[in-house]
Amino acid sequence: MATSNNMKLPVIAEQAYKKGIQLVGSGDCLHPKWRGELRQLEKVDDAFRYDRTYFVPTVEVEDVSRVHHLLLVPSLSKAEELYETFKKHSLNIDTDGRPTVKLTGEEIASAAKESESLIGPAHAFTPWTGVYAYYNSLSECYGSLVKYISFVELGLSADTSYADPISDLRRLTFLTNSDAHSPWPNKFAREFTRVKVENIGFDELKKAILQTEGRSPVLNVGLFPGEGKYNESACIRCAKHYTLKGAIALSWRCECGGRIKKGVKDRAAELADVETPSHRPPYLHTIPLSEIIALSLGYSSSKNKTVQSAWEKLITAFGSEVNVLVDVDLDKIDFVEGRITKAIKAFRDGEVIMHPGGGGKYGRIELPPASQTNKNGGQSALGDF
Q1: Which residues of 172-195 are buried (b: 16+ CB within 10 A; e: fewer)?
Q2: Whole-angstrom Cα distance, residue 345 to residue 326?
Q3: What pTM did the predictor assign?
Q4: Rounded Cα gap, residues 177 and 247, in angstroms
Q5: Helix, strand or coil for residue 316?
Q6: Do you know which InterPro entries this protein is assigned to (predicted)?
Q7: Which of 2.40.110.10, 2.30.130.10, 3.20.20.140, 3.40.1620.10 would CATH assign to domain 9-225?
Q8: Domain extent listing, the chain
Q9: pLDDT per position as a tens digit, 337-356
Q10: pLDDT tens digits along 202-251
C-alpha cells in the first residue's frame, strides 16, 4: 500500500503529540515486523508508550467478500494468536499490513472474540469495501456473532447524521478514526474520537467503547462526508450528480453513457428506518488546521511557507492542533491572523459551504463570504492537500 517511509513509531509519536492525540491505534499489528517494532516500546500496563504517546495494537483486515473489519487487540500475545489463526487463510499476511483473509465476517468475528479483541466494521459506508456496500444489515455479515460487534467505524465518508437513523447501529458506539499513510498532522488523525476514561490503555478504551463504568465517548471529530469522492450519486465518467430517484429512473446509466455510482449519502438514506436520532456525543466537522489556514489566506496548498509559518505559531502557542481546532478560545488566536480565527470559527459553528463530491471526484469546501479570501491560488479540494 502507498504509505510514507516516515511511518515509524518514533515519528508517529512525535507528530501525534503535535496533533494532540494521546492514544494511537498501531495498525498492522498482525505483521510480524511491525509487532517487533511495537515490542521495542515501553510497556505501560496494557498499552505501549514512546515518549508522551501511547499505542494499542490494532489491525484492519479484508474478508473473503472484500469487506473491511477493524480489530482492537488487547496485547501483542493476542495479536500473535490472531496471526496464527489468520495465517492459514491468508496469502499476504506476512507482506501486507492490511491482510486479506479468506474468511467470512462471522468467522473473523469469532476469531476476534476468541482473542478477546474488539471488532467492528471499518469505514462502514464506503462503496467498495464497507459492510453496507455488500449487506443490508450487520447480521447478514456477522451472523450469530453480530451481538459481539461493539462499534462501527464511520470512516471519512460518513458522520453521525448518516448512521444514527439506521436502527441496525443504535446500540453501537460510533468511532471516528482515519487511516494514516503519513505521520504529518495534515494527514494524520484527520478524524478522532475523544473519550472519557480514568487512564490510557486498552482496558479503559474498551470500557469507553462498551460505555461501562462511567466511561464513554464524549466527542466525535471528523471530515465533512461531502468531501468524499462518492458522497452523492454521480456519473463516474462525466461527474454529473443525480438524486437517488433520478438514478433509479435511468437504471444507473448516465445520459452520457457512463455508469452512475451510488453515493454514500443515498446508501445511508436507503438503510435509514427511524426518524428520531438517538443520543450521541456531539460531532464536530473540521479539516486539518493547515488546510483551514490555507483556505482562510487564499492559498491552494497547505504546504505554502506562509501557511506553515502560521501553523507553527499556533502549535507553539497552544501545544497541539486539536487544542486550536476544538478547545482554545477564539479571541486568543487573533494574534496570528484574524482571517484564520474567522475560518476556525466558521468550522466550529458549521457555517462552511460544502460542494459535495461524487462519481470519483472529491468535494470542495468554501468559506462563508465573511471569512473568505481567494487571492493566492483559489479554492482547493480534499485531494489537493
Answers
A1: bbbbbbbbbebbbbbbbbbbbbbb
A2: 10
A3: 0.93
A4: 31
A5: helix
A6: Pol/histidinol_Pase-like (IPR016195)
A7: 3.20.20.140
A8: 9-225, 292-356
A9: 999 999 999 999 999 999 99
A10: 999 999 999 999 999 999 999 999 999 999 999 999 999 999 999 999 99
